[in-house]
Amino acid sequence: MKTQKYLLVSAMPTPNGGLHLGHLAAQFLPQDIFKRYHKRKGKIVEFYGGFDVYDNAISVAARKKNVSTYEMAIHYQDIIKKELKYFNIDIDRFLNYLEPELIEKSKSLINTLNNIFSQAIVTKKISYPYSLDNIPVTGNWLFGKCKKCHSDIKGYSCDHCGISITPNDIYDFDFEKSYKSQEIIWKDKKVSFLSTPVVDLKNYISSQPISDDIKILCHKLNQRKIINYQWTAIDQWGMYINPNDKDEVFFNRNFTLIEQMIVADIFYKIHGENPFSSDSKVKTILAYGKDNVGLLLVDLPSILLGNNIFEPYKQHWVSHFYCINGKKMSTSKNFAIWLNDIIASKVSSDSTRAYICSVYSRDKDIDLDLKALLEHDRFSSDLKQGILSMNKISQKDSGENTLSHTMESIAKKIDDIFSSSDLNFKEYYDRYKEFCALIYYVNCQKSATLWVEIFDNYFSALVPNIALFAKKNVRVYAKKSK
Prior knowledge:
Layout: E1 5-10, H1 21-40, E2 44-50, H2 57-65, H3 69-86, E3 93-95, H4 100-116, E4 121-131, E5 142-146, E6 152-154, E7 170-175, H5 177-180, E8 184-195, H6 202-206, H7 212-222, E9 228-230, E10 232-234, E11 248-250, H8 255-271, E12 283-289, H9 293-307, E13 315-319, E14 322-324, E15 327-328, H10 339-344, H11 349-358, E16 366-367, H12 370-389, H13 402-419, H14 425-437, H15 445-459, H16 464-473, H17 475-481
């Protein structure tokens, strides 16, 4: 029987600031826990991530700091890597798409897709706003209301109805304050769109381990039957692809297609298998927030399946929003519980990981607060003291088997949780708390050894530092394992 292979990919964070707790909870920690558990079981698990380096939100942040967009992107990539390292997010490949090699690779892949789609790419004239110094004021520089749903929007998409947008899809225009006082002129520009056959994604969407409300949204988006997907855009920052127009860039929201091809190539070189081929048995999982379902779960799979390019991700882990007092956290609005602040306050990484799982919900938005996080930090400290107290036990074997059976029963429940396609991290956390409580019933060295062994095997995926602490500091276990 062949060993099961997994390819996990976290949605690309935009390096326009550090990460907040919502980023960690939505797209990094679930994948990390999944990887750690299954690798302990002998599975092959690759975990990749990259940065959304062509998002023009970086330009907005860079202008405020009076640095170049490139400098801003590189600066925050380094910060994000350090933050994720602190929280023990074990990513095998962290891809910087601004590296020269990956720039050339990306352009080559775009050219490949352009050749494949040559008969399906059409151009349209779209009016774009420009400043007097001939700079496009688009994407995150531009505010307004969506003509389709009338919600407030910013950037290249409407979060409410899940569609990609151009200035033609906006009314009640407004501009980021850097341009508010400037005169704006409008220019007609040619933008490419990809015409693709209509694909019914009903079964694909229904098979995903996501909440019913997100499925309903995706089914509604799927029924729109859009056949023209934006392929290029006009921007002051991005992957420039048209030598005849310095402002035309590859539409950044489609860059996930390029990333998918790049990670497939990396995986193939290591394991000799393309994880996105139609006959691949590799389980591919993409994790992201629900504001991206229109793109990642509807538009891009439609492009791939409609043109028989390669397979989309088999599973989508779509997180609801993480909020403060009911309001979604946001990097661009500087409204969040920042990872850097948690690190500065010296809250342990394990406490943060456990806290996130304690509030996990597949079905609704989640409020986070620092007070509850601090309570988990106190629990972690108490747990370490309980672990050390096992060194006081002198009896080798009490002959009592009930505790052993209880511990083994919890281990079996963990296996069941991780064998489910709908992995419930709150249930995993509940079993963690249940198992931790058993430490106070350990009355012999045999039980102490079993407690540490099961804790390491089943909960090091959640709290790796505490698991390592137990292995090193419970003397009877450390002596046995040498």
